[in-house]
Amino acid sequence: MAVHDHPHRYPGLRHLPSLRRAANVRASGEATSTAMTAGGARVLAGLRLLTGFVFLWAFLDKAFGLGYATPSAKAWIDGGSPTEGFLGSVAVGPMESTFHAWAGDAWADSLFMLGLFAVGLALIAGIGLRVAAVGGAVMMALMWIAEWPPARHLADGSPSMSTNPFADYHLVYAVVLVALAAAGAGATWGLGRAWARLPFVRRNTWLL
User: Are 133 and 180 in contact (CB under 8 A)?
Assistant: First the structure.
């Protein structure tokens, strides 16, 4: 008895996608993923540069009195204090008296200005983002405490005008700094790759 092949014996096989089609779909997905990764890297790089400019501009304006937030008469290079006005006017929060004691001190002025410059420069260059994230987050936390958004009233009983009891721009900046460091955002439009290849950076990865 002759045995004949029956083309309809395995009808389910007819509905399986071909290997070529599966390969094309996989390649298309990988290309889309690569494009999204590249696009995300550029977005983070842009965010890094803008955030760096915020810090660096604050340093330049306070150091040289460029006439925006700081008038020329109060420039740091001319003897002005970048912390006296802000810390001296703190009127609420658990560190009110401490900030008043720090206001205008040379060490406070120097640390504040060094922090602004170092964080801004690190972000613009795309190097040392981990150190910049820690230093910048500490600065933002102290400024958040100085403004103390949870309070609805100041020490004298007047309204604090706080718009949110927790989240304000200081916390947003702190989270942005941590996110940029965690994502290694200095590799795109920055010197992050070259910095990471330096021998002393390889030995001390906290400098990345």
Answer: yes
Burial 98-129 (b: 16+ CB within 10 A, else e): ebeebbbeeebbeebbebbbbbbbbbbbbbbb
Q: What are 120's two structure tokens?
A: 């801004």
Q: What Å distances lie between residue 59 and 116, 119, 130, 148, 190, CA to CA?
A: 6, 10, 20, 23, 21
Q: What per-residue confidence (pLDDT) applies to 2?
A: 46
pTM for the full model? Answer: 0.82
Is pLDDT above 60 for 12? no
pLDDT tens figures, 104-141: 999 999 999 999 999 999 999 999 999 999 999 999 99
Return the HEC string of 95-114. Answer: CHHHHHHHCCCHHHHHHHHH
Residue 203 in tokens:
């030995």
* Alpha carbon distance 55, 68 (integer Å): 14
Distance between CA 13 and CA 158 in Å, rounded?
A: 77
Locate 195 and state its tokens.
Answer: 């910095």
Q: pLDDT category, 152, cuts 50, 70, 90?
A: very high
